[in-house]
Design brief:
Elements: H1 8-28, H2 37-56, H3 65-89
């Protein structure tokens, strides 16, 4: 694909991919994946955001510092998510309060 021009066909393919990912999100709401539910949902949401940013916001056509800035933003977002997940996973969870009295 020529990066200087996005064709109408590319827009239609992107739209179809977004509809498929939206259907996957809807289907995911009916599945019980346990601890994998949130990571899978975030993966689908990230794929949708990437398609929108690349094609509808025309980042695929950009040259220079804009793609670098977007890449750094994604890196910082990944660090933020990883640190938040590490915090939640390392907390000491008390299932029930200690028994009081005889």
């Amino acid at each position: 694909m020529d990066a200087s021009r996005i064709t109408e066909r590319t827009y239609w393919r992107t739209w179809i991919a977004l509809m498929a990912l939206a259907a996957a999100t809807f289907g995911l709401s009916f599945l019980d994946l346990g601890m994998l539910h949130v990571p899978v949902a975030l993966l689908i949401a990230g794929a949708k955001a990437t398609l929108i940013a690349l094609f509808f916001m025309h980042l695929v056509q950009e040259r220079g510092s804009i793609p670098i800035a977007v890449g750094i933003w994604f890196l910082l977002l990944a660090i933020l998510i990883a640190l938040t997940a590490a915090d939640v996973l390392t907390r000491d969870v008390m299932l029930r309060p200690p028994a009081s009295g005889p």
